[in-house]
Amino acid sequence: MKIKAIAFNTFKEAIRDRILYLLLFFAAVCIIFSRLLALLTVGDKVKIIKDVGLTSISLFGALMAILMGTGLVFKEIDKKTIYTIVSKPIHRYQFLLGKFFGLIFTLFIMLLLMSFIFLAWVFFHTFTIEWEMFVAILFIFFELCLVTSVALLFSCFSTPILSSIFSLAFYVIGHTAWGLETLIKKIPPGMGKTLVQALYHFIPDLENFNFKTEIVQHLDIPSEVFLYSILYGFFYTLFVLIIAVLVFRKRDFI
Question: How many Å apart are CA 125 and CA 155, to the nearest integer?
């Protein structure tokens, strides 16, 4: 019940933040203007609209998670309300989980709004409901859960500006980690290759949640790939949240 109460309060605070609606507006603009990009590009116009739309949802969803998540704990510290919270009979892990689930629910609502705009725009061009788009959107949500947990972790020990930079770097690196695999093949055997291989396995691979190309191009995706991505997202998010709890427990607010 304590986690639920904190989550509800976090949701009420987050939903009033103007930056959410600003990002939602820009996401809608990018989705609508994908039509213009499709006219200027050679290829299937509907596929370009779908690809740009899904990319916009992923990008602006991640920005929402980062900009909101990095201030979750810092705001409580800055307003001195954290002293009141930790003095009450509530565990710190309950406080963090409440903040996490509250923001996740907020992002879920924003994702629904962006998805509605996107699917309505696709329907306007195809006059069919693209049910397979929901698969790509679902895995975007899983990605946002992981990004939120990382933003919350950085929020436990850093300022919002630095936390935003760190979280954005995590997002960019997570989508470019596949380049290390190519680098590993070119590095000769030795200590350098071993270090790069260790780094490759440690860095999160956010491309595990990226099914935009496969969905847009109507490619077959094995069910075990979906299962792997779900388990990867669940355990990596859990791992980050555990670290966040351990870090937050070490902070002294007395």
Answer: 42
Tokens 């590095």 locate to 187
The beta strands (E) that lie in the chain are given as none
The number of folded domains in the chain is 1
Classify residue 151 as left (phi > 0), alpha (psi -120 to 50) or beta: alpha
Report helix angle 18-32 to 45-69, nearest 10. 170
Residue 49 to residues 26, 27, 53, 112, Cα–Cα distance (Å): 16, 13, 6, 18
- Integer Cα distance of 71 and 183 in angstroms: 36
Both structure tokens of 243:
């670290």
For 170-213, what is each residue's pLDDT tens digit? 998 888 877 777 777 777 777 777 777 777 777 788 989 999 88
Distance CA 57, CA 60 (A): 6
Full domain range(s) for residue 203: 2-250
Residue 47 exposed, middle or buried by CB count within 10 Å (0-12, 13-18, 19+): middle
The CA–CA distances, whole Å, from 68 to 11, 95, 180 equal 11, 16, 30
Do 97 and 47 meet the contact criterion of CB atoms below 8 Å apart?
A: no
Measured at the CA of 54, the angle between CA 118 and CA 164, to 5 degrees, comes to: 115
Tell me the per-residue pLDDT of 223-251, one tens digit each, with 9 for 90 and over.
899 999 999 999 999 999 999 999 988 87
Specify the length of the chain in residues: 254
Instruction: Determine the Cα–Cα distance for residues 12 and 10; give it in Å rounded to an integer.
Output: 5
